[in-house]
Amino acid sequence: MEKRALRADSERTAQAILEAAERVLSDNPAATMEQIAEAAGVSRTTVHRRFASREALVDAMTLWATQQFHNALASVRPDVTPPLVALYQVTAKVLSVKLRWGFAMNAHPAEEGVLTPDVLAQCDVFFRRLEESGALRPGVDLVWARRVYCALIHEAAQDQGSDDPDALATRVVDTVLGGFGKPGVTMG
Asked: Which sequence positions fall in the DNA-binding region (predicted)?
């Protein structure tokens, strides 16, 4: 029982460091490990014991953000949720993760850690379901539609004027449906 308590405490400490690093590095990408430790409420040696280098910390942040991204996609269950509902829900949840973990999600070019082959395959299935439901125009290049959708999500998360994932999701979905949807298909 004590071993489980120690493990849970260790996981909470690592989580606190990752969250503090996201906040601190978002404000100041040149922040030191000491500043991150202070924000996490731990000693600098605790941060270094868990993350051997700044690069290891950023990699761990990206891995954590990637897992949150995957969890957001899976929680919607786009394989069984009505396609237009899933489109909005996936968009809002992914934007929520991107807004909360912006530094980590942008730490690697083109979100190479986030858009894994598994995620791309899920997106492709999702876009095929949109096409099959009649939400998209016949003959739409689904790979192109998915790529544009991912780019729109990325750009929406960069929008400094809004931190509301629901409002940004509505803009992204409206844009996707306007560009690829059948005339008259809307969220409303």
From this structure: 32-51
